[in-house]
Amino acid sequence: MNSTDRTIYLDHAATSWPKPEPVRLAAMRCYDELLANAGRSGHGASVGSAELVFDTRERLAAMFAVPDSKDIAFTRGATEGINLVLKGFLNDGDLVVVSPMEHNSLVRPLKALVETRGVRIETLPADRFGRIDLTAAAAIAADLSPRLAVVNHGSNVNGVVQDIGAVGALFPEAAMLVDAAQTAGAISIDVQRDGIDFLAFSAHKSMGGPTGLGACYLNPACDVRPLLEGGTGSGSASTTHPDFRPDRYEAGTLNLHGVAALSGALNHIESAGLIGQLKSELTEMLIEGLSQTEGVDVYSPPGSGALMAAFVIDGVPPEIVAQRLEEDFGILCRPGLHCAPLAHRHLGTHPGGVVRLAPGFGNTVEQMQQAVQAVRTIAASGRNA
Q: Cβ(52)–Cβ(263) under 8 Å?
């Protein structure tokens, strides 16, 4: 479908669309004006680029209550930030406690470290929606001595949001890594208040920014080895990689065009506010409507406890449902396992997966009503087939 005139885009968990106008303006300005390599030259264009990078880093620090912006490293996305922490912080034999709702961006590198470093994994107990059971987790916490606690703040499968502060309090001696790919830009995150040592996020989801860019907060009290070494524009006389921040973690040329677009996204957030309330309200409409539909099983928690709605129609494979939603109703969504097979095993939806409806910027109440009616139409046709 080439036209967007009748499109209802409900795949914001994969990436946000449309981008807010400040993002487009910042990106276009970046291409229209002279933008040189930051920190690689002394002329005005390079200095201007460096100032853009510095300003964006400072604004991210303010957004997440990071005391010193030098502790925020730009990455290619949440996945690179997670890899940086896991591979740079964990040592042989370390124990890691995780939620059952983790994405493969964490599971795959962690499994690799099980093989190469003998890292051990303990999965915390959770309810049927994947929310960590704090009472049950507290009962076993005393018998565990993890070096790292990992929490997927907002699931990309069913949108369930974890209480990261409460989880961190269970393991006060452990560092805590939060995957905020879905929640950065949606929910208030304060690394000091929430006890977060590492915060990895991407720019293109709830932040509303560009793909191919993210950032990771690294607590200066935690030693993390760099993932890459190379040119940084600093200490060029030395063949040894810098040991100071943020240069230690930013080898190679930064995605400057992405940083510019991210600055536009921050302009939008600072003006319009976080998008989490809108996402929760629209998601609750979907969950309520779908839960009242015969033949539909919903796997997202009710009561404004999720940022997206996951469901299955009895007897109709998720990929067929998604295909019909697009072809018959112009609704774009994502079926399947969503790169999170362990989450689906916990939910009981493996191997078929679910259909995920993820609202965001630009969506309306009327569109949610249309989406629910579309699912009801498909469910009814499935029963009558």
A: yes
Domain that holds residue 68: 21-272
DSSP letter string over 224-264? Answer: ---S--S--SSSTT-SSPP-STTGGG--S---HHHHHHHHH
d(CA 76, CA 304): 31
The answer to whether residues 240 and 295 belong to one domain is no
Instruction: Give the pLDDT band (50/70/90) at residue 323.
Output: very high
Q: Provide the total of helices (H) and of strands (E) in the chain, helices listed first.
A: 11, 13
Q: 362-381, pLDDT tens digit by residue?
A: 999 999 999 999 999 999 98
Structure tokens at 293: 């539909």
Count of structural domains within the chain: 2
pLDDT of residue 45: 73
- Which residues lie below 8 Å from residue 3, measured CB to CB, with a gap of 6+? none
Residue pointed to by tokens 């399947």: 336
> Is pLDDT above 70 for 129?
yes
Choose among 204, 85, 77, 76: nearest CA to 148. Answer: 85
3-state class (DSSP) for residue 177: strand
State whether 241 and 293 are in the same domain.
no
Q: 347: helix, coil or strand?
A: helix
Q: Which of 89-98, 113-122, 156-165, 221-230 has the lowest mean pLDDT?
A: 221-230
State whether 229 and 284 are in the same domain. Answer: no
- pLDDT, tens only, 244-283: 689 889 888 888 999 999 999 999 999 999 999 999 999 9
Percent of the chain with pLDDT over 90: 82
Q: How far apart are CA 223 and CA 245, in angstroms?
A: 12
Lookup: tokens for 228: 């890459």
- Taking the C-alpha atoms of residue 256 and residue 56, their distance in angstroms, rounded to an integer, is 11
Q: Cβ neighbours of residue 239 under 8 Å, at least 6 residues apart?
A: none
Q: Cα dist. 55→21, 61, 69, 120 in Å?
A: 20, 10, 10, 40
253, 257, 190, 246: which is closest to 215 by C-alpha?
246
Residue 385 pLDDT exceeds 80 = no
